Amino acid sequence: MKGTYTILLLILSNTFMTMAWYGHLKFKDLKWFENLGLISIVLISWGIAFFEYIFQVPANRIGFRENGGPFSLVELKVLQEVITLVVFMIFTLVFFKNETIKLNHIIGFGFLVLAVYFIFKK
Question: Where are the transmembrane segments (predicted)?
Answer without folding.
Answer: 7-24, 36-55, 76-96, 102-120
